[in-house]
Write a structure and sequence with these properties.
The complex is a heterodimer of chains A (493) and B (492). Chain A is built from twelve helices and 19 strands. Chain A has 493 residues and is α/β, with parallel strands linked by helices. Chain A folds into two domains: 38 residues; 441 residues, Alkaline Phosphatase, subunit A (3-Layer(aba) Sandwich). In chain A, helix 10 runs parallel beside helix 11. Chain B has three domains: 151 residues; 97 residues, no CATH class; 176 residues, Alpha-Beta Horseshoe (Leucine-rich repeat, LRR (right-handed beta-alpha superhelix)). Chain B contains 18 helices and seven strands. Chain B has a seven-stranded mixed β-sheet with strand order 1-2-3-4-5-6-7. In chain B, strand 2, helix 15 and strand 3 form a beta-alpha-beta unit. Chain B is flat. The termini of chain B are far apart. Classes of the chains: A alpha/beta (493), B mainly alpha (492). Chains A and B meet through helix 2, helix 9 and helix 11 of A and helix 1, helix 2 and strand 1 of B. Chain B: This is C-type cytochrome domain-containing protein. Chain B: InterPro entries: Cyt_c_Planctomycete-type, DUF2231_TM, LRR_dom_sf.
Amino acid sequence: MKIYKEAIHKKFELETRRHFLRKCTSGIGALALGSLLGGCGKVIDQMGQMRDAARPMKALPPHFAPKAKRIIYLHMAGSPSQLELFDYKPELQKLDGLDCPPSLLEGKRFAFIQGVPKMLGPQYSFAQHGQSGAWVSDRLPHFSKVVDDVAFLKAMHTDEFNHAPAQLLLHTGGPRLGRPSMGSWVTYGLGTENENLPGFVVLVSGGTTPSAGKSVWGSGFLPTVYQGVQCRSKGDPVLYLSDPEGMNRNLRKKSIEAINKINQETYEEFGDPETLTRISQYEMAFKMQMSVPEAMDISKEPDYIHQMYGTEPGKASFANNCLLARRLAERDVRFIQLYHWGWDSHGAGKAEALDHGFKDRCQEVDQAMTALLQDLKVRGLLDETLVVWGGEFGRTPMRENRGGQEMVFVGRDHHLEAFTIWMAGGGVKPGITYGETDEIGYYGVKDRAHVHDLQATILHLLGMDHEKLTYQFQGRPFRLTDVHGHLIKDIIS
Amino acid sequence: MKKIRYTLFFLLLASPAWAQSEESNQLLLFFGRFHPLLVHLPIGILLLAYCMELLSKKPQFQSMKGAVPFALLWGGIFALLSALVGFFLSTGGGYATDTLFWHQWLGISVGVFAILAYILKKRSKTRASFWLFTSSILCLFVTGHLGGNLTHGNDYLTRYMPTSLKKIAGIPIETVKREIVLENVDEAVLYTDVIQPILTNKCVSCHGSNKMKGELRLDAKEWILKGGETGNVLLAGNVEKSELFHRITLPEEHDDVMPPSGKTPLEKTEIQLIEWWIANKASFDQTVAQLQAPKEIYDILNEYAHPSGPSQSAVFAMTDIQPANPKHLSQLEEAGFRVFPIAQESPFVEVTYQQKVQPFGNAQLKALEKVASQVVWLNLSGTQFEKSLEIQNLATLKHLVRLRLDNSSIRDDQMKFVEELAWLEYLNLYGTSVTDNVLSHLQAIPTLQHVFLWQSKVSPQGIQRLKSAKSELKVDTGFTHHTIKNSPQKES
């Protein structure tokens, strides 16, 4: 009897005012059209795309023929100094050690610089490379060999000078929490061509996740099926994926089928897309038990590949993640996001000094990212894979003086007015430099590009119009670039 | 009656919660789109009613008199109904606000006047009724015209009016060009052929004969020289002091930037052209050759004369390709292929073969041939072809742009079909056993841009020959980087 009462109570709990009103309207409007369509699992979304509710990751046609089918985004969390890598400023060398002129400080806010800092010249020597004559410092000896495949954007700028908001702005289009990440937008817009693997894979190295946490690959207000799936390069690639002890794959299959049946009934009753997310995630997890270990196993790669990347199977490293990125690209994963942490070269300690930790970071990424570009290229994958490299902002031409004191190690503070990123492959003009900063690398003076412009361009290369990729939320359509973003036409081949 | 009342009550009750939702916006627009369908009903009914009203004054048509009130009532009801769905349609936005305002209120007036005329007629106030009816008809004409303007644009009616008639009617004659169309860069008059078209396209909608914001007109030489309310906009030879240049180069969030936010901004190249024009004393009659354009400017102008074309393959511009038969596409999937449309509303598809399912045989080939015109990207990476395969039939896939055969079992003697692929740009043969014998086939593909031969049996000499025969062709042969110590290329 008690169970019966409880069931009745549950039913009343579910019958809220909102349900009542919804039933009223759909009755009166006599347009059960929406629910009719929803009933057979096919929904036309705001963008006019026919979506199969039961297969949220199904590949969808882009707005126009794309240049790139997938993207590998190498994010350098903490933001490497452009002035020690790509943005060569001999004038700044001449000013090294002099007090910063007040004109550069007026009305500016810095994360750590106080009072009057000293100017800081480039810490490493630069040379021009390749036919394009791109300037690269001696910290990236491998990468300097492939500059002719790369487009540098030297006058990037952002709105945020702290890591977490700047990372959020770069990856989600807004500096605060709650927006979907670029990878979520892309998989929402395009789905994936390989439904046996996640469409949006995240690989993290450098010891820790970016400052903004996992929100940088979160799905925000999009259905959670579109959030990034973090894979590890050491141990089980995806946690909790293997069968629990005492349960074999057949039993697992049966229990998932039973759970999904119940979930399907729940979905038919309530129509909550999150239920579908859950169903497809159970199914994907089951498929991934087979496909992920195969894709993530780099130990069978030939020796010359390991030498080329500098990989050591079983270790968590940026190099391993680069090799994984290539393997995932071969398997048609749509969005492959790498994070490498530790670029925040303030100089407040050895690990974050331009003359120590920064050197190590350069060594960790140089060979592997170069190998990734070359490896994609010879396999014919670079033509259809967009590779993007960069941090969330730049670094000041002034030396950081935390607490107004000269510090033991050399470092630079956060800087939002100018930084360098590079892009390669997938429809990007190779061997060009776009944008220019002033003589000391403080401001962009020509062809500046905001992070929203970068996002618009990335979506364009993947075949999407950033103004048309929208999602209705809280009464208005949202998009990755919000109300901003201009296509950077000059870098598109 | 009671039932209807309840229905309305619920509709009102539910509307606040519902009106916020996306579904409701769509529903409004859904009904709104019936506006063009409905509007012609009241037009027809009211016009006919008015004719009958006029005619019925003559004895021989007197019998029509009785039909007029009926037609008036229904004409009025349909007019109001059209106005309602019209209002729904307007929630979609994008209409000229002034025109919309008049269209909306005059449209409502049509219905209100007609119904008032009906009521008065019923109360035998014939004279008042007639005048209201006449007003309704007048409103109808104006509303209809404005509606046409809203949908088709203000100059829709008169655009193709003969020039002589336009002169009589006092309609301005458009002689200036809207688009930069250059036949010969050197002979082009910079102002007439380049600068004015930019201004006409981007500025004249607010700074022209219809609107003169800031008392400035930019539609002809005299007006440009006259300037606006703050004086001159053009200081020949002085770019920085020329308001015309200053305002178009302000940052987009600046209050004074032109064109203002929401309007199409000028292209970077357009700004460069205006800058160069002003710097060159803003000549109104000199040609590009006389002005000795620097290379940068010449390149921009040359782009107008000879557009470099879309960077995607021209195949995508074909308009006569029908979408593939869905039945054929599902047959293709049954045969082990995965099929993805290239883009929305494009007939073209990308096709990938999944080797795991079954070996590639004639059945697969047949399935492909059924969608031969639609396949532009074909991925046969890792495919093992059956021995008996008539692979030359792949040549029927005449629109192929990208072909991946890497790591497949393809042999030299199976490669002749590529010569017939007139659009092929990308050919991936890495990891295959093809040798120098394949190179003559590659040379025969006119459009080929990129070929991949890493880990194939093609010799360095062969590649050298290929490169010299097709200098624009990019050939990827593998790693040349110093980090690779044991790569197979180095060993060989």
